[in-house]
Specification:
The complex is a heterotrimer of chains A (about 130), B (about 500) and C (about 500). With about 130 residues, chain A is an all-alpha fold. Chain A has helices spanning about 5-25, 30-50, 60-90, 105-125, 130-134. Chain B has a domain at about 280-495. The chains are: A mainly alpha (about 130), B mainly alpha (about 500), C mainly alpha (about 500). The interface between A and B is large, with 51 and 47 residues.
Chain lengths: ~130, ~500, ~500
């Protein structure tokens, strides 16, 4: 296995780990970090692809892509973190409602989980108000 | 061609126009907001018009290398029948939504309103929407995978921000969730792109198509890209983020999201499967169709259980997007191993009609909520009598979605049914029929609330005429689409490889 | 004889003559009464004139068609052939009369703008499907008819009206979806959807796969039968009687149910062809269903006290005469069925006009309230009696002619049981109509009518705008029977259609 293949493999592993963190971790900042790691993994794969065309000369196209990708990642992370801050400020907790820990003020929990409850009612939780409207 | 105005100019106008307009609108004063919207709408309409003029006749595809550097190193812009149809739909619907938004957000030069959270949010609709529009147009014109990635990312960022404009906890949470889904999806897509580059050394759609991608690595790439885009298109079962997000956005924003934004990621999936990979019959398309079926059934059933008007319409979007994915198994069922043209034209005619009709419905729903200052279904009791035009607009849009003639939705349904039955696909035909009935069920549910006068709401704010007329205009367009489909279907059919 | 007007797009003009008023009225305000009435009447008169030109033209051998392509291989077509004209003439003439009636009945009420605009749209849809030259156009207008009539059914806005409307929608929309499925299947199976005399289906293909073609027929039948009020999907019709009388008149004489019957005609003759339909057993099924409906409707009518509900069940029954006639192989029976489309329309509209007169003038809605009403409203009851006698089948009113042709045709087809059904039905008709007439003429008048309106009409018994239309159509019913031999009577025209092979 050439070093290039190792880099590619490492990139794939980083990608998988990052996506896993983004999906599995509850805390919003963790999710954003996971996304950045995943992005890094992809960049690694891209860069590992660049000497394949001609081993003596590095292919500039993937490098351009990685640079662009970094810029995009910065913008996306900025938005995501800013939004995560707003979520924390407005709901008091840096989590999405479906990932909420159990100890939260009742009314806030209800208000946020109200959307999820409307979906749960469809699964037969027997919401009377839902029946009256439906 | 003789005047020196070439397709490249129109393409540039269509992408850069709204972008520049977005900057103008960012200044935030009422004047610059209106100016920005006018600039954006104007440039897109002129650009699309120009593209109609330069397209047609001999060349099925117009190709423009950006900066004179073509593939494989440079980026190509390309325009075929499909792209033109999608661009036109976005242009018309976008123009209507822009007009609507000027009235919806009111006169924000009124200072106290301007400094309120809602006022601050309102100020950003125009710049965000224009940015989004620019990205969407770019997606339709793009001939390069990485270009697509960047544009879909911009689209996702703009759309997520749009969701949060209302500044309530619900909106913020829904926007955050949407953003995360969007980012995960984009990254999956990018990984696929990277893998393709490893395999093929190029990212131009046309050159990749010529490669004939086979083997495990391209398959893995396609899987990643599809999953990523499917998440952004809210394909069942990755749909849960959509209803809260589309419902939380302000009405013109919901229209943008449901009618336009979701079509962008779907378009990319189609380009990949049909143009680049050239998929044939097999388990893959069947899975897509099956998930589409799940979307139709699950989305419609959940729509029936909703208590909020906008969430109902949002679930309807989930269901209707399912139809688009049912197109895939039908597409490959042509005789002799070719493409089933009816499925192709039917699927995209459905996308077109859905865009117009769904926008009409969200705008009308927005007007109704504007009038009674609430969103739940019980609040719109009796509104049919007070806002007859808005009610009619909602109804016409809903009927188009259900496939009732005369409407674009009916034509699309006829085509899709024909595609299914031509190959003996009775399962798909029955699914489409059932889907239509379910759609009718939830549309009629809303109409019933609107007609029933027994418990009218106490507050009623008069709705600006502009809002009523733009919704109605879109609804009428969806009816007109049911009468003359030849030109559009021929355009679409020409884009089939 | 040369056609007076040879303009090919005449069918389009006929459709537009009610579409334009329909949209125009929607745009006018609620209070623009004069403009609305003018628009309505202008459109109605224009339609009759245009249809007259088409009649004359087709009689002279001209042909009228207007098409444009919707999709490759799918056209929107309006064709003025002899069969279409039968239905269109009925619609046009009766629309004019009903417009006058409706103005008299409802112009003092609420939601007039909505009512009259959808009233016109309803007739537009009916005219459209009458002249539809292919299945696609037909389905388009057939479904549009559902939407055009719904606001009319729920016009009053009462809980019962909304409930009735809901049932109506469920029935018609579900069947409409099935109809679309059948129509697409038809196109896929046979390659074409254009109507042709003698049918589109290739007899050899049908003989090779009778089961498949029968299934196709049944799907289309399921889609069409709701509006045709065939048993067992007739239930929406009696319930829809909560609508005001002009609506019932329109639904039962001109628009919805006739559209349903017309759909059956097109299905049996213009799509499958009657021979093919008989061979695969489809015509037989229709005939049996029709017979069952005829008897069932008459039986249910027997114990109704509400006048309009009685008339509704009578419609259920009478409409199936049309279905029965066109499902038989002999031209005579087909003539009988086809002409009954017109005769039933004229007679039934008379009955509904009279029912509306009674309700509007005296508040009388039930038969038990009708004691001696003939003394108070002699002209109305005279019209009612004429039409009722026609329903029973007593000459010289038109109904007798249709039943005669049906009976003779059935005997020619070697199906004497049909004659039995006709006789039984006539007896039942007598059983429920004659008591009504007897009550009206011979029973004692009550002290006070349920709600006699304040308006006094001078020496005339009721509002002229309501009375004159009722008398006009009663006269038409009588004339259609008495002058049945003339080539310009409905019977004459029907004989022309069948004789020319245009069916």
């Amino acid at each position: 296995m050439t070093p290039l293949d190792l880099y590619t493999l490492a990139g794939v592993i980083l990608f998988a780990a990052g996506i896993h963190a983004a999906l599995a971790r509850a805390h919003l900042v963790w999710k954003v970090l996971g996304l950045n790691v995943a992005g890094g993994g992809i960049f690694l794969v891209l860069l590992a692809a660049s000497p394949r065309v001609d081993p003596a000369v590095a292919d500039p196209v993937p490098q351009a892509m990685v640079l662009t990708g970094i810029v995009v990642a910065v913008a996306a992370s900025a938005l995501a973190l800013g939004l995560a801050l707003r979520v924390a400020v407005r709901t008091g907790q840096p989590f999405l409602p479906e990932d909420l820990p159990a100890d939260l003020p009742e009314d806030l929990l209800e208000d946020l989980a109200g959307d999820a409850a409307a979906d749960a009612a469809a699964n037969g939780a027997g919401d009377a108000a839902g029946d009256a409207a439906g | 061609m003789t005047s020196g105005l070439d397709s490249i100019h129109w393409m540039t106008l269509v992408v850069l126009g709204p972008l520049v307009a977005s900057m103008v609108a960012l200044a935030g004063t009422p004047r610059t907001l209106r100016l920005g919207l006018a600039l954006g709408v104007g440039s897109v309409l002129v650009g699309v018009g120009g593209l109609w003029l330069t397209f047609g006749g001999g060349d099925p595809v117009l190709r423009n290398p950006l900066g004179g550097w073509g593939a494989p190193l440079g980026i190509d812009l390309r325009l075929d029948g499909l792209a033109l149809v999608m661009l036109t739909m976005t242009a018309l619907v976008g123009a209507a939504i822009s007009l609507y938004s000027t009235a919806y957000f009111g006169d924000i030069s009124f200072l106290p309103l301007r400094d309120s959270p809602a006022g601050r949010g309102a100020r950003f609709f125009a710049p965000l929407w224009l940015l989004l529009w620019s990205a969407l147009n770019g997606i339709y014109l793009s001939g390069d995978l990485f270009n697509l990635y960047v544009l879909i990312e911009i689209l996702g960022l703009g759309a997520a921000a749009l969701v949060t404009l209302a500044v309530t906890p619900k909106a913020t949470v829904a926007g955050m969730r949407y953003l995360l889904v969007s980012l995960v999806g984009s990254l999956a897509f990018l990984m696929g792109v990277a893998l393709l580059y490893v395999v093929a050394g190029t990212l131009s759609l046309e050159l990749l198509a010529e490669e004939g991608l086979q083997g495990p690595l391209p398959a893995a790439a396609l899987a990643l890209m599809t999953v990523g885009m499917a998440a952004k298109t809210a394909l069942f079962p990755l749909h849960a983020w959509l209803p809260p997000a589309h419902a939380a956005a302000p009405a013109p924003g919901s229209a943008v999201l449901s009618a336009l934004v979701v079509k962008g990621s779907f378009y990319i999936i189609v380009r990949l499967w049909v143009d680049v990979y050239g998929v044939g019959p097999g388990p893959a398309v069947f899975v897509l169709g099956l998930l589409g079926a799940g979307a139709i059934l699950w989305g419609s059933i959940l729509a029936l259980r909703q208590r909020s008007l906008k969430r109902l319409v949002a679930y309807s979007t989930v269901a209707q997007l399912g139809y688009l994915f049912v197109m895939f198994p039908l597409l490959v069922s042509g005789d002799g191993g070719g493409w089933n043209v009816d499925a192709w034209t039917g699927g995209f005619y459905h996308a077109l009609s859905h865009g117009v009709a769904k926008a009409a419905m969200f705008l009308a729903a927005g007007s109704m909520s504007y009038a009674v200052a609430r969103d739940d279904l019980s609040a719109i009791s009796g509104i049919a009598h007070r806002l007859p035009m808005t009610f009619l607009a909602f109804g016409l849009g809903g009927l188009s979605l259900a496939g009732i003639p005369p409407s674009g939705g009916f034509v699309a349904k006829w085509l899709l049914l024909r595609a299914a039955l031509a190959d003996g696909g009775w399962g798909w035909a029955l699914l489409l029929t059932l889907g239509g009935l379910l759609t009718l069920a939830y549309v009629l549910m809303v109409l019933r609330y609107a007609i029933d006068r027994t418990d009218p709401p106490t507050t009623f704010r008069p709705v600006p005429r502009r809002m009523e007329w733009t919704a109605m205009g879109l609804a009428l367009l969806s009816v007109l689409l049911g009468f003359r489909a030849v030109e559009i279907t021929e355009l679409l059919a020409g884009a089939l490889p | 004889m040369t056609p007076l007007v040879a303009w090919e797009a005449l069918p389009l003009a006929v459709v537009l003559s009610s579409l334009v008023p329909g949209i125009g009225i929607m745009l006018l305000g609620e209070e623009a009464q004069r403009a609305r009435i003018t628009l309505n009447l202008l459109g109605a008169v224009a339609k009759v004139v245009l249809v007259g030109f088409m009649l004359q033209g087709v009689g002279a051998g001209a042909s009228y068609a207007w098409r444009f392509t919707v999709l490759p291989g799918l056209e929107f077509s309006l064709v003025g052939d002899a069969l279409a004209l039968l239905f269109v003439t009925l619609s046009a003439v009766l629309w004019l009369v009903t417009t006058v009636y409706a103005i008299g009945y409802l112009e003092g009420g609420e939601n007039r703008r909505r009512f009259f605009s959808f009233f016109s749209l309803c007739v537009t849809a009916t005219t459209g499907l009458a002249m539809a030259g292919d299945l696609f156009t037909f389905v388009l207008f057939y479904e549009a008819l559902t939407w055009a009539t719904y606001p009319l059914v729920v016009h009053r806005g009462t809980p019962e009206a909304i409930q009735a409307g809901r049932r109506y929608l469920v029935y018609t929309l579900v069947s409409g979806t099935v109809l679309v499925l059948g129509a697409v299947w038809f196109q896929v199976e046979t390659g074409g959807v254009a109507f042709q005399p003698g049918g589109v289906v290739d007899p050899e293909a049908a003989a090779a796969q009778p089961g498949r073609y029968l299934a196709l027929f049944l799907v289309l039948l399921a889609g069409a039968s709701v509006k045709a009020a065939l048993f067992p999907v007739h239930g929406w019709l009696p319930v829809a009687m909560v609508a005001p009388a002009p609506v019932s008149a329109l639904l039962h004489a001109v628009a919805v149910v006739k559209a349903g019957a017309f759909a059956l005609i097109r299905l049996l003759h213009s799509l499958f062809g009657i021979e093919v339909a008989s061979d695969i057993g489809a015509a037989g099924i229709v005939a049996v269903l029709a017979a069952v409906t005829i008897l069932y409707g008459s039986i249910r009518a027997l114990n109704q006290d509400d006048l309009k509900r009685l008339l509704a069940f009578s419609t259920v029954s009478q409409l199936s005469y049309v279905a029965l006639g066109v499902a038989l192989l002999t031209p005579t029976a087909q003539i009988g069925g086809l002409v009954h489309l017109v005769h039933q329309g004229i007679m039934k509209i008379t009955l509904f006009f009279c029912a509306g007169l009674l309700a509007h003038t005296l508040g009388v809605k039930k038969i038990s309230q009708m004691g001696g009403v003939a003394r108070r409203m002699p002209l109305t009851m005279m019209a009612f009696t004429v039409a009722a006698l026609g329903m029973i089948g007593i000459p010289p009113v038109a109904g007798f002619l249709s039943k005669w042709y049906l009976g003779v045709g059935a005997m020619e087809a070697g199906m004497p049981w049909v004659v039995g059904v006709l006789l039984a039905s006539s007896l039942l008709n007598a059983a429920y109509f004659l008591p009504v007439i007897r009550t009206a003429y011979l029973d004692a008048t009550p002290d006070r009518w349920p709600s006699e309106g304040d308006a006094r009409f001078g020496r005339i018994e009721a509002d002229v705008r309501l009375l004159v239309p009722a008398l006009v159509v009663a006269l038409l019913a009588l004339a259609s029977g008495v002058f049945g031999g003339s080539p310009w009577s409905p019977l004459g025209w029907t004989e022309l259609i069948v004789g020319r092979g245009d069916l």
